[in-house]
Automatic annotation (TrEMBL):
Residues 24-139 form the DUF2147 domain. It comes from Polaribacter glomeratus. The lineage of its organism: Bacteria, Pseudomonadati, Bacteroidota, Flavobacteriia, Flavobacteriales. Pfam families: DUF2147 (PF09917). This is DUF2147 domain-containing protein. It comes from the Bacteria.
Length: 141
């Protein structure tokens, strides 16, 4: 009986800890329709946060390429594209990196912050954080 109780407690604690992180899979919504259009995976590499598109929901867009991107990302498939690069943890935010918007090919400075276990705030901006746009991703199950 003690083993079952201990195992249950350990399981609940593990789930709670994992839910309190920016890392994992997130749903990104289309601003115009409000529908989930992709799944983004946020991962850690060398102490920094990165993200890539791992699923595109619209079957007609699965083979889309980033025609508006510049440089090394020009005409790369959007599926698998790294859109978030080099964010470092700063208290309860991750900042100092960049985010690519494959819809317009533009790269913005950004920061991300976990609002709660299942909601991630992403702020992309040019120059100052006041001049930008905020999006919210919801954790994918």
């Amino acid at each position: 009986m003690k083993k079952i109780i201990l195992s249950t407690i350990l399981f609940v604690v593990t789930i709670s800890i994992n839910a309190q992180t920016i890392f994992g899979k997130w749903h990104s919504k289309n601003d115009e329709t409000g529908n989930v259009d992709s799944v983004i995976e946020v991962y850690e590499k060398n102490g920094k946060a990165f993200a890539k598109i791992i699923e595109i929901k619209n079957p007609e867009r699965k083979n889309a390429v980033c025609v508006l991107c510049e440089g090394k990302d020009k005409n790369k498939p959007i599926l698998g594209l790294n859109i978030l690069t080099g964010l470092e943890k700063d208290d309860d935010e991750w900042s100092g990196g960049k985010i690519l918007d494959p819809r317009n090919g533009k790269i913005y400075k950004c920061y991300i912050k976990l609002e709660h276990a299942n909601k991630l705030k992403i702020r992309g901006y040019i120059g100052f954080a006041l001049l930008g746009k905020t999006a919210y991703w919801e954790r994918a199950e």
